[in-house]
Amino acid sequence: MTATTTAARTHREPELLGQTVVVIGGSSGIGLATARSARAEGAEVILTGRHPGDALQRAALDLDALSTAAFDANDPAELERFFAGLPKGGVDHVMVTAGAPNYGRLLETKSDELRHALSDRLLLAVETARNAVDTVRPGGTLLFMSAEEGHATAGTGSVLTVAAAFPTLTANLALELAPVRVNLIAAGFVDTPLSASLLGSDIEKRREQLRATLPIGRVVGPADVAALAVHIMSNTALTGATYTIDGGEQLVSA
């Protein structure tokens, strides 16, 4: 076997060459990591964030993004306006990472806050799907994020309720939007700036605990989730499914 033959067999075309990926919540963390991985696989990227600040602009410059937009993704009117500005049939994949989990005891949470905690992510998925009908090409992907389902503990009621509902919502949207594909990534702990802000001074303790107990022997990072996201985008046989990524956390916490 010649060196030329070996090189020909090992050459791999980028998975997303010539495609366009929109990341809603793409200025940091999992969203930014996914945009970076998609770009490395040949895609053009469009990034959105809640605020038009330095983080979004740095991400856009770093990735040579096609464009950026700053808006509140949970505002249906603003979300519709954003999608209306995209070319019809000109987007291949949309990933939504916007939003943060809402922790707190259910009975101690005010009604309005609880209503938002239980509905925001699910409604955002529905509104994204509604707006993506004429924008995402057939065979393209809508990809959502949620926490993984787990054991109930005080303070996780709204997070786990949403996590339990999201797979059913994903499956139904996959049927309604076909041939556009709809999938869900359900993540355990991921070491992101958001995780650090939520845990504060306890973040390093959490990292050490996971390194010691997870079967993979390390903490899951944004790049791990991004690799899964790009695979789901590129594999056109995947729709209506939920993919858990937690480094084996459920195996040791059961």
Structure description:
The chain is α/β, with parallel strands linked by helices and 254 residues long. It has one domain: Rossmann fold (3-Layer(aba) Sandwich). The protein is 46% helix and 17% strand. It has a seven-stranded parallel sheet, sandwiched between helices. β4, α5 and β5 form a beta-alpha-beta unit. α2 crosses α9, α4 runs parallel beside α5 and α5 packs parallel to α6. The longest helix has 22 residues. It is globular.
Features:
254 residues; alpha/beta; Rossmann fold; seven-stranded parallel sheet; 46% helix
Task: Give the percentage of residues in beta strands.
Answer: 15-25%
| Computed Rg | 19 Å
Taken from the alpha-carbon principal axes, the silhouette is globular
Helix content: 40-55%
N→C terminal distance: 50 Å
Architecture per CATH nomenclature, i.e. the level-2 architecture: 3-Layer(aba) Sandwich
Q: Strand order of the main beta sheet, please?
A: 3-2-1-4-5-6-7
Number of domains: 1
Q: Give the biggest beta sheet.
A: 7 strands, parallel
CATH fold naming: Rossmann fold
CATH homologous superfamily caption: NAD(P)-binding Rossmann-like Domain
Number of strands: 7
Sequence-ordered SSE layout with sheet pairings:
Layout (H helix, E strand, L loop, with lengths): L2 H8 L9 E5 L4 H12 L3 E6 L4 H10 L3 E4 L5 H9 L6 E6 L14 H22 L3 E12 L9 H21 L3 E7 L5 H7 L3 H11 L8 H13 L7 E4 L3 H5 L1
Parallel strand pairs: 1-2, 1-4, 2-3, 4-5, 5-6, 6-7
Helix pairs in contact: 2-9, 4-5, 5-6
